[in-house]
Design goal:
Number of strands: 8
Helix content: 55-70%
Number of helices: 20
Strand content: 5-15%
């Protein structure tokens, strides 16, 4: 990934078309030139104004300077706010900062106006340096702006900036030229205001068609971006096979091992050994142990594939961990209380059968089987492999929903399926926000443990207490979620 990135503003971070073109239209009107179609003025977006007035309307330098003055009469009080931030830009900038990148602005727009626009859209907080053209026109060309931005970056301790660690991100050939002049990587976006093959002909190193691809490229670099493009070219059939292969491997390993252990158990029960009597008396617990052992066996078949994946393990600070614990416990208890309030278990025979088997074991054994073994094996399968592979091909929302649906369906009955789907959404969101695989494992384990302990003998939560407990859990879960969403990123080392 890159360590530094300089961003152009217009056409890269924001869409300034209305404000710039209408202000140019006003400046032309003041010069006695009428241009009713603002679409014809989009070439003014990006390059310095003086050159554009001189090139496109054959003005003298003096006339161009006068036109710039007229342009600013409309642009400063009004035009700069007729602007829109491209969708996904704030989220991208936040992700880059969370990854430790140093960000800067290198824009041909006058610097005071750049600062006002960034402040207006609450984007300035993401940038370590903000550089624009000088108001006196002494620094207008992109090469000079980039040079000044690099000088300021060096003042922050950044040294030896080159094409391997620093990218200039823009939407026009001028941005490529600025990058080339200072031996930086030229990264461009095609959703801006480049025309035809302008960027490719200028020699851009990479051209992103949307913000997500730009984010991925800056975070991963050229080799990973090419790999992602290759992944996107895979047929839907192969994508589906790649995603579901871990589930198939797991089920084969699980069922083979389960059948072998059941056969061994049956053989033992047919003997006169003293151990056979003990096993016969505790056959339900034995079957639960066999099931968990088979889950571990299925996971062992997945382990080589799991170790090959790039599993994130970003260090967390204590507030993140505490919030995750609170969210997992309060949400899982709240959901179970809600289901009991609506008497959903009574109408689901499949769930009652599973529950009868699970609660037949001792409390200690149940905590080990369902609070330790199940979360580890299921997280390796569903978050580590299935979700991780989906993220290579699909958007975040699609990957979250589909992987959580598969997690719910895996449980085999309607009630646990619904619970698994909702819990899966929480776990995968936590995984995405914290970028550490241990966090969903921990959240899953604590959710299972807390529910198993509270519902083990049916006497901890009274029926009349359920509405209050549900309300309390809902408030706590919401508070934990809001903390993770808005403050969690500050608690990553």
């Amino acid at each position: 990934m890159f360590q530094y990135a300089l961003f152009d503003l217009d056409g890269t971070l924001t869409d300034p078309k209305e404000g710039i073109c209408k202000s140019v239209q006003f400046a032309l009107h003041m010069q006695g030139i009428e241009e009713p179609d603002i679409d014809k003025l989009t070439p003014f977006i990006g390059p310095p104004l003086k050159g554009s007035f001189m090139d496109f309307y054959h003005m003298t330098e003096e006339q161009a300077m006068t036109a710039i003055g007229d342009y600013r009469k409309r642009f400063i009080p009004m035009g700069m706010y007729e602007n829109k931030v491209y969708p996904g830009i704030p989220e991208m900038l936040r992700a880059l900062k969370d990854a430790g990148m140093v960000l800067g602005i290198a824009s041909s727009k006058p610097e005071p106006l750049v600062i006002k626009i960034l402040e207006h859209f609450d984007l300035i907080k993401y940038f370590d340096v903000v550089t624009g053209a000088s108001m006196d026109q002494s620094r207008t060309e992109k090469e000079a702006v980039v040079e000044e931005a690099l000088r300021r970056l060096s003042g922050t301790g950044s040294t030896d900036l080159n094409e391997k660690n620093c990218a200039m991100v823009g939407d026009r050939k001028f941005d490529v030229e600025g990058a080339r002049a200072h031996h930086l990587a030229a990264v461009c976006v095609s959703y801006g205001y480049a025309v035809d093959d302008e960027l490719a002909e200028a020699g851009a190193d990479y051209i992103a068609s949307d913000v997500q691809k730009l984010r991925d490229y800056l975070l991963t670099g050229k080799s990973e971006a090419k790999k992602k493009q290759a992944d996107e070219a895979i047929s839907p059939f192969r994508k589906t096979g790649h995603i579901l292969l871990p589930l198939i491997v797991y089920y084969v390993g699980y069922n083979v091992f389960y059948m072998l252990l059941v056969i061994v158990m049956d053989k033992i029960l047919q003997t006169d050994l003293a151990f056979a009597d003990t096993l016969r008396e505790n056959s339900s617990s034995a079957l639960n142990i066999i099931q968990s052992a088979s889950m571990l066996a299925g996971s062992l078949f997945l382990l080589p594939r799991f170790l090959q994946e790039k599993i994130p393990t970003r260090a967390q600070k204590l507030p993140n961990v505490i919030a995750a614990v609170i969210w997992a416990v309060s949400l899982s208890i709240g959901l179970n209380v809600l289901f009991d309030l609506f008497k959903l278990a009574a109408s689901d025979s499949g769930y009652r059968e599973v529950a009868e088997s699970q609660y037949s074991v001792s409390l200690t054994l149940g905590l080990i089987l369902y609070g330790v073994i199940s979360p580890i094996t299921e997280e390796i399968l569903f978050r580590g492999l299935i979700y991780g592979r989906m993220r290579k091909f699909f958007s975040l929302p699609v990957s979250m929903v589909v992987s959580s649906f598969l997690f719910g369906a895996y449980h085999g009955n309607i009630l646990q399926g619904l619970y698994g789907f909702l819990l899966g959404l929480m776990i995968v969101y936590l995984y995405e926000k914290t970028q550490h695989f241990a966090m969903p494992v921990m959240a899953h384990a604590l959710a299972n443990m807390s529910v198993f302990m509270l519902t083990y003998d049916g006497s901890v939560i009274k029926k009349e207490q359920e509405p209050l407990i549900f309300a309390i859990c809902s408030v706590i879960a919401l508070a934990a979620y809001l903390f993770i969403r808005y403050k969690g990123k500050e608690n990553v080392r």
